[in-house]
Amino acid sequence: MIVAFSISPAAPDENGSVSAAVAEVVRIVRESGLPNETNAMFTNIEGEWDEVMAVVKRAVDVLAAESPRVSLVLKADIRPGYTGQLTAKVERVEQHLQGGRSAAE
């Protein structure tokens, strides 16, 4: 499965930023050893249900220890039997773009 999630504490720092808290979460994800990527809006992580959800729970627990309220947005692509989809899905789109074919074809 691939999970895209965004997590932040309810209260930003004195500058209105949540980047330090987000960095803590990204560190947890990277230390998990699971395939992952971070972009401006979400962190994506790929693995089996239990291992992915354990990482998300750990991230929530770490932020909850510092903030009385945590916001979590999670989207999952559950496709048993498939691995390496974190990059393969993007590669398939790029192939269509390079071939000049439209999405309607």
From TrEMBL:
The record's Gene Ontology cellular component field reads: cytosol
Q: What is this protein called?
A: Uncharacterized protein, MTH1187 family
Q: Which PANTHER family match?
A: UPF0045 PROTEIN ECM15
What does the similarity note say? Answer: Belongs to the UPF0045 family.
Q: Domain Thiamine-binding protein: where? A: 3-94
Reading the lineage from the top rank, the first entry is Bacteria
